């Protein structure tokens, strides 16, 4: 007789395949969790490394910021010292300016011109005087223009002499004293 199996083999086969399926699913879930754990750990490591780098950069930036503040303070001090030095140099050069102006005026005033008033207001010099002729005044204008110290002469008025001194004409003139930098430049050229 043929051999007939009456045992519920299909059910056992189904249970075996179900058991196999559940085992495979369990292994897959375990492998997925393990992979996810390693991926998470990897990204946590990257994040921690980046945080360490960021903290290092922040500390270096704060150090550089303090250095920048110190450098800016030093630059301000340097600018302040340079202004002081420049002021001292100008004061030093202007120390004898009054004497130089009088000396230069005696050089540019030709014979035949008599000064009655000399007034200085800042860089403006106002001269009031008398002249024997207008030619002498024009000669004085040319000499002021050629001066290393004086510039921009302007005659404001010439009035014919009064009755007691008809030969002399009254005049008013003003001109300017050159700035410290212009004087230095003209002295270097000479």
Could you characterize the architecture of this molecule?
The N and C termini lie far apart (142 Å). The protein is an alpha+beta fold and 190 residues long. Strand 1 and strand 2 form a beta hairpin. It folds into two domains: 95 residues; 81 residues, Gyrase A, domain 2. The longest helix is centred in the N-terminal third of the chain and has 86 residues. Helices cover 64% and strands 19% of the residues. It is rod-shaped, with a radius of gyration of 51 Å. A four-stranded antiparallel β-sheet has the order 1-2-4-3, with helices on one face. It is built from four helices and four strands, in the order H-H-E-E-H-E-E-H. The model has no long low-confidence stretch (mean pLDDT 86).
Keywords:
single chain, 190 residues, alpha+beta, Gyrase A, domain 2, 2 domains, 4-stranded antiparallel β-sheet, rod-shaped, PilN, transmembrane, Pilus assembly protein PilN
Averaged pLDDT, please? 86
Structural class: alpha+beta
Number of domains: 2
Based on Cα principal axes, name the global outline.
rod-shaped
Helix and strand string, N-terminal first?
HHEEHEEH
Computed CA radius of gyration, to the nearest angstrom: 51 Å
Residues in helix, %: 55-70%
């Amino acid at each position: 007789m043929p051999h007939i199996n009456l045992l519920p083999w299909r059910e056992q086969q189904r249970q075996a395949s179900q058991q196999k399926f559940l085992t495979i699913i369990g292994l897959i879930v375990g492998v997925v969790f393990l992979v996810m754990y390693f991926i998470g750990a990897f990204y946590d490591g990257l994040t921690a490394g980046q945080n360490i780098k960021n903290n290092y950069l922040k500390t270096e930036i704060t150090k550089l910021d303090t250095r920048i503040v110190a450098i800016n303070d030093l630059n301000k001090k340097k600018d302040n010292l340079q202004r002081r030095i420049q002021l001292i140099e100008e004061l030093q050069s202007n120390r004898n300016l009054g004497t130089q102006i009088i000396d230069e005026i005696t050089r540019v005033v030709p014979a035949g011109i008599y000064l009655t008033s000399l007034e200085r207001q800042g860089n403006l010099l106002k001269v009031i005087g008398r002249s024997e002729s207008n030619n002498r005044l024009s000669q004085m204008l040319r000499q002021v223009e050629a001066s290393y110290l004086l510039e921009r002469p302007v005659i404001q008025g010439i009035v014919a002499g009064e009755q007691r001194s008809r030969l002399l004409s009254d005049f008013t003139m003003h001109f300017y004293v050159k700035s410290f930098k212009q004087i230095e430049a003209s002295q270097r050229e000479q």
